[in-house]
User: Which sequence fits this backbone?
């Protein structure tokens, strides 16, 4: 979750993951010269490479009010292949009944059974996502239970509840002494001990409450989740959160705290950085104001904000898309409702640009938000009843399905490819056109004006023909970079372009050794890959012939030319597809290639030769 050098931050899990990966890569590089290449036909020797890491980046997809079944399907079809490392899901614990989405934030018990699915469905989702290389982050509501407004009733798992009466878990003594609503955010005591929106405020200072909350989170960890978004963290003393975290079975579980920073308030964001990441609301606020003002300002967006390694960044979330604090996808429609003025049609495009910027600029851990459209702020997900939510449906306009947008997928690939590189080649026109590079790995240009713009950009990219990954997912739009790194391009009004070294024209390089090409099928694949004993290499991709992204169904390649693995398959002429190589061992364990998906298109005569090097 870190980009710019920050040095002093305490190690956190995603950093550790990145560090472990970097170490594995270092070992792989350092290890290979010492290992003599195997003679033809001899068994592959250990490469010293990564073992179980999937090489994915750590971009988060925040799927608001998606059922567990629909998250699982999306992990396999889209989230994993797009290269997201994490999916954040809505609160899974038992809640009050009701059609509004915000029933999710009114816990009744810690049974994992609610409108979004059962415990079994939740567990299956974690497993399915894990198999697709995506880890699950849970929105943990631990500051409060349902409140005085809710009175009494029966929860989504059938548990009866009443004020001060949560059978088996909480009674009156487990709530703070203040029994009134927070009325002043200038008063630390009130903010942390009184009721937020009438919700009963848990006595998080007590050992019993801490154990109960940690018990819930440990239950989730036992189901395989990777970490937590801590709801309403500002309303819980940082020391109580630290104590709860210390009780986790994995104290290094990912932890990002929702502390809505506000200047002049007694409770400050900086109090929480000792415990984990913190959401940087000022980042989202600045995106909104600069995309409405001048995006040239974004060059210094990290100024005065949390250290990059601890900042969770986002364009919007489920609260801010409703309260107008940040940009959001449906802002245009809400604007009409709120003001009776004309719709601002540029907002949707700016929203895409803001996400493009977030995934390109080296600051914080980015979280892409995906929810549903609404006119009523309280409305639950499309079709929600008091006790259930239908599966999300990306064929319907009701769901935003941001993760399926070409620009978002292209930029997640960009994000993964440029990881670890610095900001370079910044250019702006002093107004609403900017461009910047990420070392010699990637380059992005953003036009936040209402007219198309053409210019020659200076990059540090190696010469070549690159796919513009925001313009098209199939490399149908390309940009040629000259030997000096310059290229000329035209950006549409409110448009962007992004180039990176993992997506170059055709995704293929000339075949240096056609003699080793395979045999079965007119589409041939050859990949240079070192493996350990027991592993084989398969090609897996978006089309059914390549296993539909299921490694178990991928096309196994032949090692007779080791370290070249070769094979072939027949695909319809003209098919455009995405693919990657995987290493699969005897136990079925899968190691994915790093970086963005590769793309290719079968020729009009049905032939195609893929010649790649494992990455
Ligand atoms: C959060 N972060 O700190 C969540 O991100 C935010 O979505 C939650 O508010 C809030 N804190 C409590 O977890 C949401 C809705 C509120 C809703 C609340 C509880 O934005 O509108 O309050 O969840 O369901 C609703 C009514 C209130 C009423 C309250 C209690 O809107 O008027 O007082 O329920 O009955
Ligand atoms: Ca509290």
Assistant:
């Amino acid at each position: 979750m870190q980009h710019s050098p920050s040095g002093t931050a305490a190690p956190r899990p995603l950093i550790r993951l990145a560090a472990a990966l970097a170490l594995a890569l270092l070992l792989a590089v350092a290890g290979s010269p010492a290992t003599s290449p195997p003679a033809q036909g001899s068994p592959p020797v250990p490469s010293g490479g990564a073992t179980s890491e999937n090489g994915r980046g750590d971009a988060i997809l925040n799927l608001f009010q998606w059922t567990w079944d629909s998250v699982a399907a999306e992990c396999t079809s889209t989230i994993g292949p797009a290269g997201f490392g994490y999916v954040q899901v809505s609160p899974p614990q038992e809640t009050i009944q009701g059609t509004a989405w915000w029933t999710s934030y009114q816990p009744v018990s810690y049974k994992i059974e609610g409108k979004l699915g059962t415990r079994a469905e939740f567990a299956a989702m974690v497993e399915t996502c894990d198999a697709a290389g995506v880890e699950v982050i849970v929105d943990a509501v631990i500051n409060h239970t349902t409140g005085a407004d809710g009175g009494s009733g029966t929860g989504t798992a059938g548990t009866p509840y009443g004020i001060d009466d949560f059978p088996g878990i909480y009674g009156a003594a487990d709530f703070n002494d203040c029994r009134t609503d927070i009325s002043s955010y200038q008063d630390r005591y009130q903010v942390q001990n009184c009721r937020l929106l009438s919700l009963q405020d848990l006595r998080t200072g007590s050992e019993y409450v801490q154990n109960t909350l940690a018990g819930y989170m440990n239950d989730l960890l036992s189901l395989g989740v990777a970490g937590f978004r801590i709801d309403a963290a500002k309303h819980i003393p940082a020391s109580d959160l630290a104590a709860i975290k210390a009780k986790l079975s994995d104290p290094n579980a990912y932890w990002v705290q929702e502390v809505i920073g506000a200047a002049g308030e007694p409770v400050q964001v900086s109090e929480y950085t000792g415990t984990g990441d913190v959401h940087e609301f000022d980042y989202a606020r600045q995106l909104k104001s600069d995309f409405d003002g001048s995006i040239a300002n974004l060059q210094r967006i990290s100024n005065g904000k949390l250290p990059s390694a601890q900042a969770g960044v986002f364009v919007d979330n489920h609260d801010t898309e409703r309260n107008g604090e940040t940009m959001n996808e449906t802002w245009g429609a809400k604007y009409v409702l709120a003001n009776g003025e004309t719709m601002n049609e540029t907002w949707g495009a700016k929203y895409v640009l803001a996400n493009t910027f977030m995934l390109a600029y080296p600051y914080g851990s980015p979280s892409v938000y995906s929810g549903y459209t609404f006119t009523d702020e309280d409305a639950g997900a499309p079709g929600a009843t008091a006790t259930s939510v239908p599966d999300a449906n990306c064929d319907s306009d009701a769901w935003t399905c941001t993760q399926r947008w070409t620009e978002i997928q292209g930029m997640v690939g960009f994000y993964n490819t440029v990881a670890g590189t610095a900001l370079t080649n910044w250019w702006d026109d002093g107004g609403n056109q900017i461009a910047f590079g990420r070392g010699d790995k990637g380059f992005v240009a953003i036009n936040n004006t209402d007219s198309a713009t053409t210019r020659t950009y200076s990059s540090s990219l190696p010469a070549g023909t690159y796919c513009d990954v925001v313009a098209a997912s199939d490399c149908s739009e390309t940009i040629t970079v000259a030997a000096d790194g310059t290229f000329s391009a035209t950006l549409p009004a409110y448009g962007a372009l992004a180039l990176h070294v993992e997506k170059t024209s055709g995704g293929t390089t000339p075949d240096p050794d056609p003699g080793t090409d395979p045999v079965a099928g007119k589409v041939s694949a050859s990949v240079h890959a070192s493996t350990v004993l027991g592993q084989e290499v398969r090609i897996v991709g978006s089309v059914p012939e390549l296993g539909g992204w299921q490694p178990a169904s991928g096309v196994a390649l032949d090692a007779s030319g080791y370290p070249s693995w070769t094979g072939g398959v027949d695909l319809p002429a003209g098919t455009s597809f995405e693919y990657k190589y995987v290493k699969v061992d005897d136990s079925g364990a899968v190691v994915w290639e790093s970086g963005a998906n590769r793309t290719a298109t079968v020729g009009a005569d049905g032939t195609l030769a893929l010649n790649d090097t494992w990455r």
In short: Residues 30 and 141 are 45 Å apart (CA to CA). The radius of gyration is 25 Å. Residues 523-613 form a domain with the Immunoglobulin-like fold (CATH 2.60.40.10).
